[in-house]
Amino acid sequence: MEQAFHYDFTIAESFLDHQKEVLTCVLQFEQHGELFGDGERNEIRLFDALGMRVNVKRFKNPNIVNTWVYRYIRPSKAERSFTYAEKLIKLGIGTPKPIAFAENKYWNGLKDSYYLSEHLECDLTYRELVHDTNYPDHEAILRAFTRFTFKLHESGVLFKDHSPGNTLIKKTADGYEFFLVDLNRMEFKTLSKAERILNFARLTPVEDMVRVMSDEYAALAGYDAQETFEQMWGHVSRFQHKYHRKRRLKKKLLFWRKR
């Protein structure tokens, strides 16, 4: 661990010879990083460093309570992302290669934090399957994704942010490979049947997609196919109802922003 300008750095063993470059990516984040995405919540910038394209994610500053919590009680989102990425790789589960995390700590709390990983160029994310049900090889990709999710569950991984944008998909000669991103909300434990099926709730509102996933998962897990679909679709329907209700409420409360 190396400290400079209040930043504490933890660097993956395979990148210990590149500490100066890691430090530069964080200290020059705004000046030289190439913005990736909209930066609405957490800001991501890309650097050409360490002989690769480096993805540097700066997490949104925590609220006043979490500022203290992440300093003294609970690991920060950056630390959890790094730790969970290393665990996933040991389990043989795809995720961009973790490089380091950095935290800007003061006596009264955590100011900001960064997670550095290899930037992967993907062919699509799960979101494209939701938006375009005629996407080439749609069902085959969906079934492969379900097998990937089954592997997660069998490995004792509960990915709490299992949502459309958080799985990168790459086409290969043998089929498809899947890589998890946005890793800071995970549990590692033996999953119950109920937890496994609930884990599909946030992925898609499209009934036909849920039917394909439930069919594939039931075959893998040895569950009844119809019962699995009914349970999975029930979770999806409840999530969608809560999601749209929350959006309607937010729109009413924030109507003044459009003026």
Helices, strands, pairings?
Layout: E1 2-4, E2 7-11, H1 19-27, H2 29-32, E3 34-36, E4 43-49, E5 52-59, H3 64-72, H4 77-90, E6 98-106, E7 109-118, E8 124-125, H5 126-131, H6 138-154, E9 157-159, E10 167-172, E11 175-180, E12 186-188, H7 193-198, H8 207-221, H9 225-253
Antiparallel strand pairs: 1-2, 2-6, 3-4, 4-5, 5-7, 6-7, 8-10, 9-12, 10-11
Helix pairs in contact: 6-8, 8-9
Keywords:
single chain; 259 residues; alpha+beta; Phosphorylase Kinase, domain 1; Transferase(Phosphotransferase), domain 1; 2 domains; 7-stranded antiparallel β-sheet; 3-stranded antiparallel β-sheet; 9 helices; 42% helix; globular
Q: What would you say this structure looks like, in words?
A:
By secondary structure, the protein is an alpha+beta fold. It has two domains: 2-118, Phosphorylase Kinase, domain 1 (2-Layer Sandwich), CATH 3.30.200; 124-249, Transferase(Phosphotransferase) domain 1 (Transferase(Phosphotransferase), domain 1, Orthogonal Bundle). It has nine helices and twelve strands. The chain has a seven-stranded antiparallel sheet with strand order 1-2-6-7-5-4-3, sandwiched between helices. The chain has a three-stranded antiparallel sheet with strand order 8-10-11. A two-stranded antiparallel sheet has the order 9-12. Helix 6 (138-154) packs across helix 8 and helix 8 crosses helix 9 (225-253). The protein is globular and about 55 Å long.
